[in-house]
Design brief:
With 418 residues, the protein is α/β, with parallel strands linked by helices. 22% of the residues lie in helices and 19% in strands. It has a seven-stranded parallel β-sheet. A five-stranded antiparallel β-sheet has the order 10-11-12-17-14, with helices on one face. The longest helix is centred in the middle third of the chain and has 17 residues.
Length: 418
């Protein structure tokens, strides 16, 4: 079982599914949030976007309405991505949202809405900075190839800047539930930075991409690939540490991309199901457009996923991962008391699933996706002739009618061994 914090931070294990938001100046060119690094755009050609940023359609309540509609229970915002642009009224830099035509503090408005609606708020902050003159860009991963004209690389001065900005984020916006570091490619280890955050925001959780190990790991785009040629890629056993996997709705960018290649619904369902059925949290990202609204394509994806998640979420929340109970590749199991949930992570090859070595008959079997009954039997199967025993068999599953979804079967027992 995944360990719990046990000190007031367990909201994280109750919420489980959150909305990640990558938003900044890069929404204007609408190509990638790392336009400068991946697109070779230098700072003098990027900074002018500051005078074009005017998201008049930004409405934090609309973001939260959508998140709650589709089952998400917390939100994480990129306060400063690698480009250095700040979505709050920082006193440490002029490169900020309040110096754009929009002129208002985006983070303050989101924080007010979150606090009013009791939605946990987490803040992303990039250690890499392509704008701040003291950051030592050396061409390492996600860094510029070197300093621009006028830069004065000095890691100690940059860390002082970073500390001052983090202090602002942790003192000016009320309760912050999580701090999400990214890209500490400097390799510096300094536990005092997270210690400062914890002092300013008691009960906060912090990820592992900053200056010490933090509280949880953050794999990205690593899940949803479990079914390849009928074989399991990676272990499907429960996580033994705290994990929050993150994924974007689009394949190419975390920020808004005008011609994005979107993941299929089934791929995202499979990714969500795999992580959550193994005991992890899931943070699904959208990149709002330059006007501040979430694109119609992203909204439609979230709503389709939300319709599926609303049907199957009882199999993912407040459950125990028990996939080790069966030998099936690409099948996950979760349990709550005398109820067992069978997650068909890969598209079933047939319209039946044999749950070897289980041989206990449930009192009821239901396909959560639709609510329809599932035929369950304990049978001897011809293909198991080398091991002549009876096993629990789920028959006549509507696999063709629901080929675009991850199917989850609920099995209720009078009692359940384990």
């Amino acid at each position: 079982m995944v360990p719990r914090f046990g000190d007031g931070r367990d909201w994280f294990f109750e919420a489980r599914y959150g909305l990640f938001v990558h938003w900044g100046l890069y929404a204007i060119p609408a190509w990638h949030e790392q336009l400068m690094w991946r697109g070779g755009v230098r700072r003098p050609d990027y900074v002018p976007y500051l005078q074009q940023f005017n998201p008049t359609a930004y409405d934090p309540d609309a973001w939260l309405d959508l998140a709650q509609e589709v089952g998400m229970r917390y939100i994480c915002l990129t306060t400063k991505h690698h480009d250095g642009f700040c979505l709050w009224d920082t006193a440490q830099s002029d490169y900020k949202v309040t110096n754009t035509p929009y002129g208002r503090d985006v983070l303050a408005e989101l924080a007010e809405a979150c606090h009013r609606r009791n939605v946990p708020l987490c803040l992303y902050y990039s250690v890499v900075d392509w704008h701040q003159p003291n950051y030592p860009n050396q061409g390492r991963s996600h860094e510029m190839p070197g300093p621009e004209a006028g830069d004065e690389p000095d890691i100690q001065r940059y860390l002082a800047f970073l500390r001052a900005q983090v202090r602002e984020l942790c003192t000016q916006y009320g309760k912050i539930h999580g701090f999400w570091w990214d890209m500490n490619v400097t390799g510096i280890v300094d536990p005092s930075i997270n210690a400062m955050i914890r002092e300013l925001q008691p009960g906060i959780i912090i990820n592992n991409r900053g200056f010490d190990a933090g509280d949880f790991s953050t794999p990205e785009r690593d899940y949803g690939h479990a079914a390849q040629d009928g074989k399991t890629v990676g272990a499907l056993q429960a996580f033994d540490a705290v994990v929050e996997a993150c994924q974007a709705v689009g394949r190419e960018s975390w920020g808004y991309k005008s011609d994005e290649d979107y993941y299929s619904d089934r791929h995202l369902m499979r990714s969500i199901d795999e992580v959550m059925a193994k005991g992890g949290n899931y943070l699904l990202n959208v990149g709002p457009m330059a006007n501040g609204s979430i694109s119609p394509e992203s909204v439609a994806i979230l709503r389709r996923l939300g319709a599926w998640y609303g049907c199957v979420k009882e199999s993912l929340l407040d459950v125990e991962p028990v996939s080790h109970w069966v030998e099936n590749p690409n099948v996950l199991l979760t349990r709550r008391e005398n109820t067992l949930y069978v997650h068909l992570l890969a598209p079933p090859e047939t319209n039946r699933v044999l749950l070897k070595p289980l041989k206990q008959m449930p009192t009821r079997a239901t396909l959560l996706n639709t609510g329809e009954a599932v035929e369950a039997r304990v049978d001897f199967i011809p293909t198991e002739y080398e091991d002549p025993q009876e096993y629990l068999r789920l028959r006549n599953l509507p696999v063709n009618a629901h080929a675009g979804e991850v199917l989850v079967v609920k099995l209720e027992f009078e009692w359940l061994e384990g």
